[in-house]
Specification:
7 helices, 28% helix, globular, 31% strand, 6-stranded mixed beta sheet
Amino acid sequence: MSDRIAACQFEPVIGDIDANLESIRALGSDLRTDVAFAVFPELCVTGYDLETVADLATSVPGPITNSLAEIAGSIQCLLAVGLPERDGDDLFNTTVVVSGDGVEAAYRKQYPWGAEAEVFSSGEEPTTVETPVGTVGLCCCYDLNFPEVGLEYAQLGCDILAVNAAWRTSYLPDWRLLSRARARDGPFYVVASNHTGDQHGRNHAGHSLVAGPDGRIRSEGDTKNGVVSAPVTVSDLEQAHEQNPVRATRSSDQD
């Protein structure tokens, strides 16, 4: 296991699904050929705007995930992408993982932030997906603040925690700190994708990143659209588990 993971960041156009899909396609085309799993920001298919998501929400699977699958197939890379999901009368802030074959997994954000709780229902469970780079757990934005989310994924044996977010500039120090902390909690890699730019007065921080299982940042973006990536290796994971044997300690405590 030595392929790469990537975090892609851009400024979505609120309400313009076609433009945002083209941005996803363009960034996907810029990925290195050895990237096996790439993460895109929270609600990036529609833009982060709570007033419009209900009108733009999609079924999963559905037409939007079909478009994402076409992109994933064309670049031969698994993509984790944020979108608003409609399921009957409920809306969810959802992260879908798609391959060229379609939807491989869908995670519903468990902890809506602020006014999101007035729009979205809460997800109720963690979601994992098997990838060429190992077992990935899915997490969205404010979920990152909850150590128990990361710990549950550690108990599920995840190698990577994938985070997509619409994290504002005023909270940038927290973004970097919490990404590193969750990586250390695992221990596992954290690949975290954030919005750039300004959407309806929300100034987003960018700084998408990959943190290693030792908690150190391996690659980090700035405030511009772009991609960051880093390799995933078995030796890094094994060394992290040896130096920080929290998984083994937890398991022995439960016996």
